[in-house]
Amino acid sequence: MELSKNQIKLIKSLGQKKQRSKHSLFVAEGKKVVKELLASKLILEKLFVTPDLENLFLNFSYQVLSDSDLKKVSNLKTPSGVLALFKIPNNKILTNQGLTVALDSINDPGNLGTIIRLCDWFGIERLICSENTVDCYNSKVVQATMGSLSRVEITYLNLEEFLKKCSIPIICADMEGENVYSTDVPKEGILVMGNEANGVSLSVKKLCDKILMIPRFGSKQETESLNVATATAILLSEFRRVTR
User: Fold this and answer.
1) Residue 226: per-residue pLDDT
2) Which of the following CATH numbers is that of domain 5-87: 3.40.50.620, 3.30.1330.30, 3.50.50.60, 3.90.550.10?
3) Can you tell me the distance from the alpha carbon of 110 to that of 56, in angstroms, rounded to the nearest whole number?
4) DSSP string spanning the chain?
5) In the chain, which stretches have pLDDT less than 70?
6) Does the predicted model carry a pTM greater than 0.70?
7) pLDDT score of 146
8) What is the pLDDT of residue 122?
9) Distance CA 67, CA 69 (A)
10) What does the pLDDT read at residue 159?
C-alpha cells in the first residue's frame, strides 16, 4: 500500500519540534530502535515495514511499504526498512531521590542521545533537561539512544527553579572544580552537565553544592576540555564505583 499524501505530510512535519508537540508523536527508524521501543510501554501509533522485514514484526499491525516509498519519508541516508510513529509520553512528577542527571543547554542531538544511553547503562532513571536543551524526540536523538529513550524518564523544565527547590546535593562538572578521583561523592544527588561550548551557566553553578572536575593526565596538558557525553560517562562511572 502506498503512502497517502496526508501520511507523507504528517511524517515529514514531525521533523519539527512544534509539529511533534502538536501531534504528540515522534518518529523512530531502524530495526533495533523500533524493536526496543515496541517492547516498551510507549504507545505505537503507526508502523511501516518493507516486505523483506515483515517477518520481524508479525505480532504488530503494520503497513507494508516499498523501499522507494519509505525513502520519501525517512530521515536516514540509507533507510533501514522500518519506520514507526510513537506517542510522546506525558511527563511524570519528579522526586528528589537517588542519582539524577541534569543537562544545562545541551545543543547537539548526538550528545543528548549518548547521554540518554549512558543514563540507561548506569541505572539513572531520571534525566532533567533545561528548556533550551535539544528535544529528546528529535530524530537524531532517537537514533542515538538506540532504544534507551523508553527506559529513562526525561523532563524539560526551568532548570534554575527546579534546582532551587532540591533537597539533595547538587553537583556540577567544571574545569575549576575538585578532582573527582580525590574527593568524596554523595550517594545521591543531581549531577549537572553543561553546554558543549560554555559549560554550566554561572547562574546554575551558583546553586551547586559541589563542583567536580576530571583531571588531565597527558604530559602536554593541551586538550582544553572533554566532550560532554564523554565527561558524563566518566563521572557516572565514578559515582557508581564509589557508591555501589
Assistant:
1) 87
2) 3.30.1330.30
3) 27
4) -PPPHHHHHHHHHTTSHHHHHHHTEEEEESHHHHHHHHTSSPPEEEEEE-GGGGGGSTTS--EE--HHHHHHH-SSSS--SEEEEEEPPPPPPP---SEEEEEES---HHHHHHHHHHHHHTT--EEEEETTSPPTTSHHHHHHHTTGGGGSEEEEE-HHHHHHT--S-EEEEEEEEEEGGGS---SSEEEEEEBTTTBS-HHHHTT-SEEEE-----SS-------HHHHHHHHHHHHHHHH-
5) 92-96, 219, 221-224, 243-244
6) yes
7) 92
8) 96
9) 5
10) 96
Q: What is the pLDDT of residue 49?
A: 96
The pLDDT value recorded for residue 221 is: 67
C-alpha cell at 22: 502538536
pLDDT of residue 97: 74
Amino acid symbol at 209: D
Decide if domain 99-243 falls under CATH 2.40.50.140: no
Q: 84 near 34, Cβ under 8 Å?
A: yes
Residue bearing cell 503494520: 62
Q: Where are the domains of the chain?
A: 5-87, 99-243
